[in-house]
């Protein structure tokens, strides 16, 4: 009995420790799409740009300028941290590797970044921090990514860092050369409420769910067009990821987009076509999906009509069979009566 209780207690402790670890990591995840909002939410620091895309040849160096703004009414000292990151999820949220002694297993940019000194920023002022990135001459061609994180120190606490108020600027590096660029389109589905289908009861909140996997060695930002046709008529067309700073799919990871589909009527058959382009060689991927929009009321009416038709047909058959039996019986009775008279 005591052994069982000890086993249960160890199991509960293990679960609690895992939950704490997950929460601790999630608290420091920084996303390119949400970093700006997170920066403003701290009310302490703001960083710009949120993301830098650069290219450096092997054996060369380049400086990336990052502006850090002190949002408080007091002068503060800011401590920079170099971090690698990996793909955190399929929505594009990177997960920072916060341990200063650890690097990403592949595509580590932190190894190329020179250490930075603390920065004094006056009240409500900004300072530009120049991050030097030196690519070794023997570096392999491909993508490398990392972040520079800034956290204010507390003079009263002996220079202790306030990580809760930290902000980060992401850096995505391309080292040119012979590198494979390969995106696989693993999903292209029409969804409503997160569920894929080929027919829907209404046209509300329909999305084209797009998922790419990066099987190459370089971060790639696919772009293109998605169009919706009813018959030969184009009812809707939209750009996909066609912007100055495109959403990227990192190597050895996947990314998903949900593209809203508009101008869809309350009934009919529709065809969604997409053409995606990616990479230095402008490789293309084409895909087509069809779906129906059939209102539930129409489906119910069709079912009722079908049931009525089946009932009418069954009733008609029953009447035909019944009348035939009656005719056969009358004919038999007439023949039987004639034989008796003879």
Structure description:
- With about 350 residues, the protein is of the alpha+beta class.
- It has three domains: about 35-175, Immunoglobulins (Immunoglobulin-like, Sandwich); about 185-295, Sandwich (Immunoglobulin-like); about 295-330.
- The protein has helices spanning about 1-25, 35-40, 295-340, and strands spanning about 45-50, 50-55, 60-70, 75-85, 95, 120, 125-135, 140-155, 160, 165-175, 185-190, 195, 200, 205-215, 225-230, 235-240, 255-260, 270-280, 285-295.
- The longest helix has about 45 residues, at about 295-340.
- The protein is elongated, with a radius of gyration of 33 Å.
- Residues about 1-40 have low confidence and may be disordered.
The averaged pLDDT comes out at 86
**Main structural class:** alpha+beta
- Radius of gyration, CA atoms, in whole angstroms: 33 Å
* Structure summary, number of beta strands: 19
Instruction: Give the helices and strands as they follow along the chain.
Output: HHEEEEEEEEEEEEEEEEEEEH
Q: Which fold name fills CATH's third level, the topology of the largest domain? A: Immunoglobulin-like
**Count of the separate structural domains:** 3
Main sheet makeup: 7 strands, mixed
Shape: elongated
Uncertain spans: 1-41
What is the class of the largest domain in the CATH system? Mainly Beta
Give helix % range. 10-25%
> How large a portion of the residues is in β-strands, by DSSP E?
35-45%
Instruction: Report how far apart the termini are.
Output: 101 Å
* Proper CATH architecture of the largest domain: Sandwich
